[in-house]
Every structure is written in structure tokens, then in C-alpha cells.
Amino acid sequence: MLDSKQLRADTENVARNLARRGFVLDLAAFRSFEERRKQVQIEADRLRSERNANAKAVGMAKGKGEDASALLKRGEELTQQLSSAETALDAVQAESDAWLMGLPNLLHDSVPEGRDESANVEVRRHGIPRSFEFTPVDHVDVGAKLGGLDFEAAGRISGSRFAVLRGGIARLHRALAQFMLDLHTGDHGYQEIYAPYIVSGDALTGTGQLPKFEQDLFALKGERALYLIPTAEVPVTNLVREQIMTPEQLPMRYVAHTPCFRSEAGAAGKDTRGMIRQHQFDKVELVHMVKPTESYAALEQLTAHAEEVLKRLELPYRVLALCAGDIGFGSSKTYDLEVWLPGQGKYREISSCSNCEAFQARRMQARWRNPETGKPEPLHTLNGSGVAVGRAMVAVLENYQNADGSVTVPAALRPYMGGIEALRPS
Questions:
Q1: In CA terms, which of 62, 134, 246, 385 is 20 to 30 Å from 313?
Q2: pLDDT digits (tens, 9 = 90+) for 130-145
Q3: Annotated catalytic, 391?
């Protein structure tokens, strides 16, 4: 959520920043909220002041032995009027807050201009795509040869956009997740978290999925409004919900391996083949909570940690800085990591690393006590995939495939595969 004080004090600059996304700030609506809020606030303040003065007058009258019945009656009237004014103020504030919840985050100055993904800027590349002596196929065909990818069975069980993994491919999937967790907890110093896969609407509001993106979620039936997590970012970031952290507790760096559930409501007809876009998939998620002055250094660090996964797996990839029109709702700046998929002949996203600055923290009331002011202030939150397990598996299957249908196991994964050096057709 944006800072309402900044919005009031610097409305035109906020509007210009949001316009970079292609978002039009409804200034008329904002000014209407503000005018109504000011009017009700002024009336509430007037009534409160008059009630306080009346209470003092009652005390003085009683002290002098005078009849205070008229003053007491007036006090009751003022209390009722003030209660009504405060209710009206709460209503205006709730309406204003609901409107604020629909505003995206402000962009960092370094975010490239542009309206869509075609304007994203390549920052760097690592690795050279392999030259094959045969025509490489995609992961669906690789998996079929290995007998380990079963979309037909998944369709009978759950419908489209699900997969059943069998045998060596299932083990490869598990090995990738374990490898990533060990890398991030061991070499990178993250604390591992096991978090709930079911969360409340408040948790999703805190990280920005609600109310705007409810159609992308899987809601559960029952007495409470509960949802399957779309990413571990939701429960892990909410660990600091309604907390005030000390400077000594920051930075906080967490890693969690969870399934993720997404309806893909806006992706009809996209990536229907294979495992690129599924309703259920696994991710190893990285989350940072930091002091505001340190968040952009943290973004570079988080991105480098995600890159290290691909370097250890020896997978070619590139890093993109997302442009203003392609960046996520809650992010101030985002880097996407795209891994090379020879079966498709192009780079595809495998991780998205974002600095949300104070956007999520304001929604969650997650703060730290700034020693310079002595006051609680919003901390900054960051998140990124370190990395998507299913897409990493896709990348391994396609980049390490061989002409005989086998797949070489990357050296980094062999300790997690019982020393197996290759997956072979049965």
C-alpha cells in the first residue's frame, strides 16, 4: 500500500510515477476522499474539543456547588455527536483504504521505461547454450522417452495443467529442491522455514494478492475465508505481520520449499503443453526483511543467490530488468532470470526477484524501530524464487538430453541422486 501522507503531499509526482506503468491515478476520486475526510475530521475535532471544554466546566461548576445538570446534558449530546462523527470518519477512512489497496507500488527510478515485455532490458548473460549433434526435443518428449512424465494420469485425477512424475524424474525433482535448500541454508546463510500451505485472506492482503488478484487464487470451501498459497512468499513474509523488529534483528533472510497453487485464470491458451504453466508446482522461495537503506543492495544479493542455483547446475541463463509496464503490482523493481530451453529454442522465466520496498510492510503493519528517530517505521520486504523447481527440472531435462533418450544428471545433483549419473529409458 502506498504511503497516504506521501500521496497527499506529493500527489502529482505519485501520479506521474504510476503513469509509467500505464496506470491512471484517479485524482478526482482521491480529492473527493480527502475533502470528505477533512470535513468529517474537522467536525470530529471540534466536537471533541467542545466536549473536553464542557467536561472542565462541569468540574468547575461542581467545585463551586453550582447546578451542573445543563452541562451534563450537553456533555451527553456531545458524546453522541462525537460518536457519530467518529463512525463517519471510520467509514470514509475504510473507503479510502479500500481505494488505496487498488493502487500499485511506486517504481524505482532505475526501472526501464516501456509498456510490455518487449521493453525489458537484458542486464547480463551466463553460459553458452549447448550445440547439439541432433535436434533437441522439449521436456514433454524427453519425459515420454524416460517414462517419467504422465499428463494423462494427472488429467484423469485432476484435469488439465497437472502432472504426475514417476521414477527417476520424480527423484530428480526431489533432488533439485534438496540441492537448492542446502545451497541457500549452507552457502548463503538463510534460515529454513516450513510454513502453512493454507492462509487467511488477511495474509494475502498483506502481500498484495488480495483484493486485486483473487481470480488467480484457489479458495477453500468452509466457514472461514481460506486459500491455498500461490507462493511461499505469502506465509513467509507474513511472519513479521504486526511486529516491530529491532535493528539487531535485521536483516532477516528466509528460505522455504513449498507447493504453489495458481488458477492461471489469465493464462487461457498459454503454455498448455508440458510443465511450464501448472496449477500446482513447487518453488524454493527466498524472502528478505531489511532496513530501508539496505533494500537495493539486498535485491542484488537475492538475485545473485538465485543465479547461483543455475550456475551450479551449469544451465545457460540471462537476467532481465523488467520495464515499467511489465513489472508486478507490488514491486518497485524486479529482475527476471530466464533459463535457456533448447526444446523451445528460447529463454524462459525461472525466477523473479523483487524489491517491494515498504508496500507490503504497510499492508501488514510490519515495522522496525529506527534508532535515529526512535519510532516504528515500515521495513522493506523482498522476495524471489531460488528457484522454481519444476522449471529447473524442465531445464535439466532439455539441456542435458542425449541422442539415445537418456538425460545426464548434472554433477551438482548426483549426491542427491544416490550417485546416478544418467536417467535412461526403461
A1: 134
A2: 999 999 999 999 999 9
A3: yes
